[in-house]
Amino acid sequence: MLRHGGVLFIQLCIWFAFFLVIHQSGNDHLSYKVMLFFVFLYLICTITVKLIAKSKAILILMSLSTTLYLMTELLLIIS
User: Fold this and answer.
1) CA–CA separation, 47 vs 6, rounded Å?
2) What are the helix (H) ranges across the chain?
3) Which residue, among 78, 34, 41, has the nearest Cα to 63 in the 3D structure?
4) How many CB atoms neighbour CB 68 within 10 A?
5) How far is it, in rounded angstroms, from Cα 54 to Cα 17?
6) pLDDT in tens, 53-69
7) 75 in helix, strand or coil?
8) Measured between alpha carbons, how far is 27 from 64 in angstroms, rounded to an integer?
9) At residue 1, does pLDDT exceed 60?
10) Which terminus of the chain has a lower count of CB atoms within 10 Å, N or C?
11) Which phi and psi (to 5°) does residue 14 adopt?
């Protein structure tokens, strides 16, 4: 069983893969990008539930990684 830092690293790697997929599909409709976001979020949720037993830690790690991704995306849009 991985520690929380390892799980967070895996989540951030998945978010990076999502970032690459989104930026490679530049002309897709927004609805496709939103559906893809939820597919990746489901993937992250499934992996996190398999690796961590405590529900409070799962919620904290998922919200932390999702917030980090969204803030990074906002910074890229602003700059």
Assistant:
1) 12
2) 4-24, 30-51, 55-78
3) 41
4) 14
5) 26
6) 888 999 999 999 999 99
7) helix
8) 29
9) no
10) C
11) -65, -40
Please identify which residue in the block is written with the tokens 């539930």. 49
**Token digits of residue 79:** 């700059």
Contact call for residues 4 and 57 (beta carbons, < 8 A): yes
DSSP state of 26: T
Structure tokens at 64: 């932390």
- Token pair belonging to 52: 């961590």
CB 58 within 8 A of CB 4: no
Tokens of 13: 């790697």
Q: Which residue has the tokens 């893809």?
A: 36
Residue 62 identity: M
Tokens, residue 49: 């539930």
pLDDT number for residue 77: 87
Tokens 């499934």 locate to 46
**Dist. CA 13–CA 79, nearest whole Å:** 22
